[in-house]
Every structure is written in structure tokens, then in C-alpha cells.
Amino acid sequence: MKNTLKLSILSLIALVILGFRADDTPLEKLLKQIAKITATYPQEKVHLHFDKPYYTVGEDIWLKAYLVTAEKNEPSLLSAVLYVDLIDSQNTIRKKLTLSVDKGFASGNISLLDSLGSGMYRARAYTNYMRNYSNDLFFEKFITIGNILDTKSSKKVDEKKLDLNIQFFPEGGNLINGIRSKVGFKAVTSDGMGANVSGYIINKDKEKVAEFFAEHAGMGIFALTPQPNEQYKAIVTLADNTTESFKLPNVLESGQALAVNSVAENLSIRISSTADLINGKDVFVVTQVNGTVYASFNSKVDKAVLSANIPKSSFPTGIVQVTLFNADSKPIAERLIFVNHNDQLKIEILNAKAAATKKKMNLALNVKDLAGNPIDGNFSVSVTDLGKTPFDEDEEKTILSNLLLTSDLKGFIEKPNYYFNTANSDREKHLDNLLLTQGWSRFIWSDIVANKEPDITFRPEQSLEIAGKINTWGDKPLPNAKIIMFSNTPGYTLILDTLSDARGNFVFDRLEIPDSASFIIQSKSNKDNKNINLVLNKTPQVAEKKYIGNTVDIATYIESTKTMFNELNKFNMLDKSIQLQAVNITGKRVLKPLINIPNSANSSGAADQVIKSEKLMHETSILTAFSKIPGVLIKNGMIMRASTRTVSLTQAQQPMLVILDGVYIRQAEQSGFISSLNPSDVEGIEVLTSNYNTSIYGEDGYWGIVFITTKNGSTGKNPPSTNTSSVRNRGFTATKQFYSPNYDDPKTNQQIQDLRTTIYWNPTVITNEKGQADFNFFNASMPGTYRVSVEGMDVFGNIGRKIYTYEVK
């Protein structure tokens, strides 16, 4: 095929400048389309580095954010605002951070109050701009949180048999008649974890044609040459020696198969065709990494097997997407393969030697690239006590495993750092198995082939913004509508105006918002302001996800932190945001089951009283419905709490906070606004009065909270017209300073047992032009093995990670 092979290393800039010509070949046209999309619509990724993998209430989650371009992992300058959500197992947001991003970097902390129950949570991070693409591209990581008060954490969960699901993935996408193919498989149980299975493949005559076994995380491979008119079935043996059968994909009578193998210094590519497709027509192959095409070739199909080699040096480290197209530019087969040049930053941690308890540690970083050149970069450092917080290195979601692998793949990846841990000798083979079975999520070929550009609804935020859309109730955008925003917060004056664009979108940007400021946004689009629906942008929906179990013994960790809290309390040094009874109460808290109200803005998912639409539809007015709720009073048309809350001589009892479809309703508007609601238009009402349910909302929830969720017209009636919305915006989330005691200071109480689990956290360690940086801290009271974790990058997207341990005696 040497006479027909055309291999090209492409320049994206040149392609964009050239534009499309009438005589462009299909391959040239496709390459220019890819280059145009990549250059015009760059994408972002985010990685979070945490101080440790699990926590208890009363602690802080410390995190560092690395926001990068998807194309080259360089620090992103597109967005200056990052959102971080803590989501519980009911898929509700329990905590939300808004972080200021400085040239791709941000840091913050999540304080864990005792309203959080024990269980699995997930941290989600994204920018507003990332919302234009699949939510699968948001950063997500599962985190275990324990609660001393929650006795459920110490109960043994009854083991039950887990259902098995196994899927088969022929290399390139299809089983094709007569073409020998590699077939990957992935076996998972109903808890989402890989299953240790083995088995064999039979044809319709029950003849054994192949055998297989799971090598890692339920994944493995076998070879199969499909025959015409056959249906294959897998007989699978589980760990308990029971068997189940599963069908393989159907065999195509006609087609072309793509096989890619990593051989020495090359990627070996083989294209196999059935006899009817050996017709002299062109096929072409495009290889790209994160939207940048690094090599492509085309060939006429004049024989059954075509082959080519592409040097691995053509590609950067990362996932290479190899796609086979037919003469009509239709993608017909695809393969993902990983190229690893092991060119990550080389990080040395100096002076981490054995030392005494409470001894000052003066450590230093020395960072170089592969060629030995010093690197000035931005790094984060965590030091933990391994005796209290043991780590499973394979479980970690690191800057390497995330930015180079999982951020571009669909679905849950079990033990992502396994594939980068040099202690695992088969990691490269098992990574190839993973890429046979895992879906690619960043690019949709059908859109690129059709020259369809992404629908950009959410723009990159360079500052705090309040944005929304104005339509008629017939969902027709209102262009050039005048929108006014003013603050109703005492002591804070702000009046702004803007116009909606052609699609009805509007935005107020470059805001400097103090904590807990509230605003009114109002339209002045026509004379009577009727038939208008002004809606503010909301937090992206939380996709329902199965919470993956892990092997953390959280009960043991809870006991160690309980000892720490008691020691701090003894010396009156416990953070007062931690409720003191948390370390003393031994009774059980009765947790009410969650009652789900669709589309509710109640981030906790829990409420003391819930009234659903079935009951509301029989009420004559919404205020009548409220008057029947225990613990609630109606006074002057406002919703009040009938409680024993302390009322001072200078502060009278206040109405409950009312949140309608996620919008805060001002007290001055509450009476008329609520009474105008039709009970039949309301999906549900949630009333929060207990400390347990209101505490996550801080002082906003002191007098109680009412969430009203409407049906948004699902009854067939239009909701009441409104040209006004209210919003409370907290501005950027303030970040606490990590506390590290100074035992050289005579004022420091030396009698305190220092039982911290996170010994040191520094999210901003900057190396100088010599690649060096110094930092120091004091060891805690407990001897044992301490673990130093460093992650970071330079301005060119070179990333690195280093783990080091030292003994404390």
C-alpha cells in the first residue's frame, strides 16, 4: 500500500486560514472542519486536588483547582469563575462554592457541618462555559464522609447477591463476517464495580469457539473470527461459581474493521474489508488528540487488508482517537489508544527525613522537565498521617489520571490511578483493555461532518455574573428588552441596566458582590409588562448517578476524629462551627425519609413538612394550604413560624424565607406574590423548621424556610406572568486559612494532643526560575508514617505528581 498511503502532520492554523475550497478532497474538508471547531470553540477541563480521600463532619475539605484548556492542558484564561458542588447520595447539592480563578488556578474549602449524614458524596466542578457541552465532562469524584452522630455509619450492611451486567465491545465497533477481531468485555455488578468473571463463547450449535477471563476491574479480551449466519453467546462464570449467559452483538455480513496496536515506537493500523467492499473506493483515517489532528492518511480499498504505521512521536501523551471514514466521510469504525511518553514533570521533595513528633519540617521542591531544565510552576501540597488516613494509590483521582485519561471518557472509571502507578506491571495492557470498553465523550463526529457548530448558550465568565433569559409565555425570545437590576440589600447600592440579545439572553457582569447580597431583576420591555417570563439561569441539574462503593473503613476513621475533637474541646479550641454535642451525644437521631418533589430547589432534599400536588389541588387558595401546616402561621399574608425561636427586644420575629422555583422572594413582595399563586399550579411545598434541616442554609434559615415548586405549566395553564425575579447571590466564597500550629511559639499550648489527620495543606506553592520552592510545618503528636502529596503544572500544560513518605518517631 506504499504507493497509496498519504501521511500528513497538520497545522491547524494553516487549515483555518486556508478555508474551504471547491476542489478540497473529502479528507481535506473534514480536517478543516475539525480545525475550525477546535480553534473557534475551545473547551475546558478542571481537576481538583484534595488533601485526603475521606472526611468526617466538623472537618474541612481542602481543595486546589486546576482549570486547563482541553486541547493542551495549558492553564485556561477563558474562565475566571469556577463552581464546586458537594452532592449527596440523593443527588442533591448540599454545599456550593463559587471560586475566583486566577490564570487557571483556584483554591477553597468546604466546611462539613453535622447536618451531613454518613455516606458517599461526590464533588463536582465546572465553569459556566463547560455547561455548553456534556455534563459528563464536569469533574466528579466520589468522597466518603462520616458523621459521629449518625449511628448508621457503624451498622453492618447486610450483604446481598449483586446482579451482573456484561457488555462486549468488538474492536472498531462491530463483529464482521470473516474478519478476525479483538473483542473487549466489561463485567460489572449492580454496585458499579468490576466483577471477577471467566467463561467461554459458543456458537448457535453450542460449540466452544473462544475462552476469556477478567484481568482487571472486570475487563478482559478475547479473539473471535465471526462466521456468517451465526449468533454467539457468552457463558459467564461468576466468583460464586454460578453461571449466566449473555448474547454477543450481531455479526454484520458486510463491513470494514479497524484494528490499532501499540508496537514498539509505532501505532500499527490495520483496515480489513469484506469482499464486496474491495472496490477501489477511498477510505481515510484521522488520528487526533483533544481536537488537534496529528496525522491522517487515505487509501483506495484494493485488497482485503490495508496497513500503516504512525510514529508515536507524532502524538503528545494522552488518548489518541483513531477514526476510520468511508468515501462519503461517514465514520464507520473507531478505536481509542493511549500514548505515554512518560514526560511528566520530575518532582523531587527534599529534606523529608525521619523526625520527632511536633518537630518543624523544612521541606523543598525541586522541579525539572524531562530534559532536566528547571520548571517554574504552580503546585499544591498535602501532608497527612497515613495511620489515620490510609490511601489506596490505585483509587486516587490524580492530576495525571484525570487530565490525561478520565476527563475525556464517559462513565465511572474504577481505580483510575492504577493505570499510572508504576507498581502495577500490567497497567499498560489493562489500560488498552479499558479503552476498548470505554466511550469517548468530547467530540460528536456527526456534528463535525455536517459542519454543525456547537450551540453556545453559556459564555465564559471573566467575573461574577447574573444572567438569564426573557421570553413570552409562548416561549418566543424577546430581543432588545430593557432589563434593570437593583439591590435591595441595606447598605449596598447598585442599579444597572442592559438589553437582551436576539435570543432573549441577558447578562450583568463584572459584578463585585458582597456576601449575601440580594437583587431584583426586572424587565421594562413594553407598556404593561404582561405576557413576559423572565427566568434567571440556574445551577445545572444533577444527573442521577449510582454511588459507587469503596473499601474505606469510615467507622474507624470516625473514631480517630472523635478523639481529636474531644481533645480540642478539652482545651476550648474547637472551631465553634462544629456543634459541641457532636462528640458527646450517644443517642440515635431519627432521620425522616426523603420525599422527592421534582425540580425542587431544596438542595438538601430533606424537609420537616411536605405537601404534594395531590393535596394542594383540593385547596381554594395557597394561603389556606399553608394555614393547615403544623408549626406555620399566616400573619398579614406572610408565612410565619410558630416556634420558640428566641426573639430579642430589638428584633421581632421575621417571616420564613420563601424560595419560589429557586428564586428568593423578598419580604416586601411575599404577601401579594404568594397569595396570587394557584394551588393547582404548584407541584409541592417543603417546610424546613428544624435545626437539622435549616443549618446548611446558615443564618438564612434561622426563622425557617419554605420551598415552593411550581409545575411550570404542566397542568395546561400558563403560569402567572412575571417580569420580575429576585435572587440572592453570595459572591465569591471566602476561603479559610489552613491552621498549622507553631510549636516554636511559647504561646502554643504544648499540652494539647495534636491529633490532626491533615498535617499541612498549601494550595499555592510557586517554584522560581530555578524550579525550587520552600515550605515548612510542624508534625503532629502521633508517631507513624506521614505522606507528602504534590501535584501541579507549568504554564505550558506540563503536569506532574509526586508522593513521598517519611517517619515520625
Automatic annotation (TrEMBL):
TonB-dependent receptor plug domain: which residues?
605-702
Which membrane topology term applies here? Multi-pass membrane protein
Tell me the InterPro entries matching this sequence: Plug_dom, Plug_dom_sf, TonB-dep_rcpt-like
The UniProt entry, under Pfam families, shows: Plug
Whether Transit peptide counts among this entry's keywords is: no
Q: What does the UniProt keyword field contain?
A: Cell outer membrane, Membrane, Transmembrane, Transmembrane beta strand, Transport
The lineage's top-level taxon is Bacteria
Cell compartment(s), UniProt: Cell outer membrane
- This protein is called TonB-dependent receptor plug domain-containing protein
Q: Which organism is it from?
A: Pedobacter polaris
| High-level lineage | Bacteria, Pseudomonadati, Bacteroidota, Sphingobacteriia, Sphingobacteriales
